Amino acid sequence: xxxxxxxxxxxxxxxxxxxxxxxxxxxxxxxxxxxxxxxxxxxxxxxxxxxxxxxxxxxxxxxxxxxxxxxxxxxxxxxxxxxxxxxxxxxxxxxxxxxxxxxxxxxxxxxxxxxxxxxxxxxxxxxxxxxxxxxxxxxxxxxxxxxxxxxxxxxxxxxxxxxxxxxxxxxxxxxxxxxxxxxxxxxxxxxxxxxxxxxxxxxxxxxxxxxxx
Length: 213
Description:
It is elongated and about 135 Å long. The chain contains five helices and six strands, in the order H-H-H-H-E-E-E-E-H-E-E. The chain starts with a helix and ends in a 7-residue tail after the last strand. The chain has two domains: 16-58; 94-206, Alpha-Beta Plaits, CATH 3.30.70. A hairpin with a 2-residue loop joins strand 5 (179-192) and strand 6. By secondary structure, it is of the alpha+beta class. Strands 3-2-1-4-6-5 form a six-stranded antiparallel beta sheet, covered by helices on one side.
């Protein structure tokens, strides 16, 4: 009897055995579920990759000459934009210069003429505006002539009532950012009808584009 018990070994309680088997079964089921889920995800990704590859293959590839033409157009556009920016950087904004001048011109000053000129690459375009009364333009003439770099001219010729008014005008012109080297060429007493006035002529240089004060 003792030999038979030793051969059979210790007995395992039935509830413990059932619990162990159930645990192993549950783990195996979870592993199987995870495996199936991973396989499904992988298959879905493969199908999506194949679809994207088909879409990519369906995109028409442009011909080499079309690509070269597009590159040439892009390069030409870039060159034109660069040339335009370079030209604009050297352009004098006459509208701004005249607007600044009109803002500082006193009410007791009226002009006979105003001229402004600026150099170009080979020649200079000179614009002369003649005025009959202050603030009213009677005529405009444009002429061309050779002008060296740096000879940017701005000249006004007019009348006022006193030399003090001429000095005040000089002071106002000197604060215009686009004008420099403002100087009085002449200021003399003159008779205008039956009234004594002061005839003056003032010259200045227009600041070159990009120059600083």
